[in-house]
Give the backbone structure.
Amino acid sequence: MTEKLSEERLEKIRQLIMNPRPGSKVAAAKEFGIDLTLTFGQLRKTPQQRLDDLQSAMRGLEEFARAGAEWRKRNNGRI
Amino acid sequence: MVEFEPAIKSLTAKEVDFVIIGGVAISVHSTGYVTRDLDFCYLRTTENLKRIVSAFAHFNPRLRGFPEDLPFIWDERTLQSGTNFTLKTTIGDIDLLGEVAGVGDYQAVKKESIIARLYDCDVRVLTLEGLIKAKRAAGRTKDLLVLPELEALREMLSETDEE
């Protein structure tokens, strides 16, 4: 797997996202509601950086869930 | 939550034949997909089962969703008795799959994998094509929802391929 995409290739991908070809999968994804600029942001990273992002997001969600559980406990189950 | 680094490093150190599949593989390929567990497809030879047992023994694996007091022995005999295992470990939830719907057994999954450098280890990860096949075959709403992004990503990468 390529460690990092070249700037030239990233620019081509950016163009595909900004000007999707009618009938393409990129156009279909945008139509579906996918924000491909977020995907593009991930493409700029190495596989390790993407995995680090996921681990960080998981930690954040777990922290959020823990805080919610504590809140409910303090407030007799009310949100 | 699952800690990726100890799981991946431990499997690699014990030379386990495995491929990362599922949500973590999706994330490695550049999407913002968030998952809660770590899924591996593994080779079901006796030797590889022994390596898996050794790699995860210190994470105290138990079957997820079963009572804590239900007897469970983590050894190669237990792994031989099934194909897919959903485990709760001290580093989080880990799923071991002997085959992947839509792709096939370990050898088929390995053919549909690429090598990524993760935690200073060369690790096999299911390709975008393999992930798309697996998600289509799984067919649950949560699987189908991720397909448009995966297919767009595959298209963007193939149309800009420099090789």
